[in-house]
Design goal:
single chain, 2 domains, 6-stranded parallel β-sheet, DNA polymerase, domain 1, Rossmann fold, alpha/beta, about 220 residues, globular
């Protein structure tokens, strides 16, 4: 069984909330603002760093005129410490290894900027599993535009069914628009109940991924 499997990164393969929150709060400290809680920042994650900063600006009643400046400042802080507390979700390395052994070709399609995405994968010893990594700044478009996902699939030299794996409403919308099967990781950064997010299979443990990929690939 072979399949071409593309993964979201944050909230799907790795828990990066701590480092994203730290960078955001360092930016806020630089601007004289009080820090935000992890839970508030978690609700802002999912559409890439510029959107996260936009939501922070609205939440803190700052001027949108400062968006480019504050987004760049947040990215600077994040690039300086993108893997301080970020960890793979339990079972992810073993699941990726098993998928490779099964003959699957793997890639990453994330709205995180490509440079820190690659850094995180390298730091956590996950880059070995992925032939392609496309970030939110790799193209002129990003998820939920399906062209971002299509480009990720097309860049992979894979055969068999195409499957997307993610954790959020943005990922689900991307899969729907791309008309590809979607595996939903339920323990990431979603904001809605699982039943309200379109998916083919939902899972809570990475150890189940190989079996679910097999199910979708042979459907």
């Amino acid at each position: 069984m072979t399949a071409t499997v593309v993964f979201d990164l944050d909230g799907t393969l790795v828990d990066s909330l701590g480092d994203l929150a730290a960078a955001t709060n360092r930016m806020l400290d630089d601007t004289g603002q009080d820090p935000l809680s992890f839970e508030i920042i978690k609700g802002f994650v999912g559409n890439g760093l510029p959107k996260l900063v936009e939501r922070v600006i609205h939440h803190c009643d700052l001027s949108m005129d400062r968006h480019a400046e504050l987004a760049q400042l947040t990215l600077k802080h994040y690039n300086a410490a993108a893997s301080e507390t970020t960890v793979p979700y339990p079972g992810v390395p073993a699941a990726l290894e098993r998928l490779q052994q099964m003959g699957c070709v793997l890639g990453v399609c994330t709205n995180k900027p490509e440079a820190p995405a690659r850094h995180v994968l390298e730091a956590l010893n996950l880059s070995q599993f992925f032939d392609v990594v496309l970030g939110g700044d790799s193209l002129q478009t990003r998820k939920p535009d399906p062209q971002h996902l299509f480009a990720s699939f097309d860049a992979l030299d894979g055969s068999g069914p195409r499957i997307f794996v993610g954790d959020s409403e943005v990922d689900a919308e991307t899969a729907v628009r791309a008309k590809v099967p979607f595996l939903l990781f339920t323990e990431g950064y979603r904001k809605s109940p699982v039943q309200d997010i379109p998916h083919d299979i939902a899972y809570e443990a990475a150890a189940d991924l190989p079996a679910h990929v097999t199910t979708l690939a042979t459907a």
